[in-house]
Amino acid sequence: MDRYRPAVGTPIEELDTPCLIVDLDAVENNYRAVADRYRGKVCQMRQHTKNIKSPTLARMQIRAGGAHDGVCTAKLSEAEVMVEHGITDVLIPNQVVTADKIARLSALQRQGDVKVCIDNEQNVRDLSAIAEAHGVKIGVLIEVDTSMGRAGVRNPEQGAELAKLAESLPGVTFRGVMSHQHLEDFVDTESRILTARQYIQRCLDVKDAIEAEGIPVEIVSSGETFSYDAAADLPGVTEVEGGTYALMGTSYGYMEEFQIANKVLSTIVSTPGPGIAIGDAGLRALSWPSGPPTVEGLPGVMVDSLHAEHAVLRSDGTTAVEVGQQFMLLPWYQDMMVNRWDQYIAVREGVVEDVWDIPARGCVH
Known about the structure:
With about 375 residues, the protein is of the alpha/beta class. Helix content is about 30%, strand content about 25%. The strands form 2 sheets. Strands 1, 10, 11, 12, 13, 14, 15, 16 and 17 form a 9-stranded mixed β-sheet that branches. α7 (about 190-210) links the parallel β7 and β8 (about 220). The longest helix is centred in the middle third of the chain and has 24 residues, at about 190-210. The mean pLDDT is about 95.
């Protein structure tokens, strides 16, 4: 998006739209909720920066408490950004497999403790050979598939064999196990907690199998926003890879302790017919993977369709819509939306308090 940068103190009504807003009161509420939940616990938050793309926001959680001094990142390039900005404890909860990327990962070890996940023998051997050639050691965690049907070992026996291999090779250091889960549908809090425990237990079963081979497991990295509270009370879990909780989306509305902090401010630019309005924010400013954005500030108005540069709104007549009206769009799921922007405009009580760059946007390698 454009590099429009408003001055601190600008009222929200004077902002050029569309723009990406972060509500400071909301994000601070979310970080306090995590700090309070993890206070005094072994389990701590390792914030997933794919959802925020911002070292500034990551450091806010670290300062608030309940968190490691590090983060996890979806990609190697994202890890490079975090290390460059002084966050040097990084877990990449994915596989890094090509020789050029393993060489970059090896170089990054000289600046921080960057760990990566593994799920197959060849990848471990490649990591070992390239890291040894660069004179470094790369920490590795075994990814366990618990519900996603993507990467990860499928049973404890596979995990134990992979851990034994990692222990035997130079250039790598076995650190632990990792898993990520997905909640298909929210029914009630009791069912959510039960589902989370069942999924995470599959990761703990791999941990137990590895320890039965006499190999210590330092890190158990499991859990996410929907299971952040369940994971905190499961013995053996050392960290949670929460991401969505920081800024939130409407799809996680059942997590009532968290508030939606990222919003796209938009303006009505046309009212071509009764009950129809056109907003100046479209797919290039938002995302629509599974659910449309929600309109805030205009009761009875909903998003009918999104186009590249515009949104078509429909009103049930509850609220009059006029050209020049501002409104907020709340994301259904926000990490793809954040990746479309160069900056957050941080607002408190309707006034710009700061502007933060988003240096990890576009990190796809």
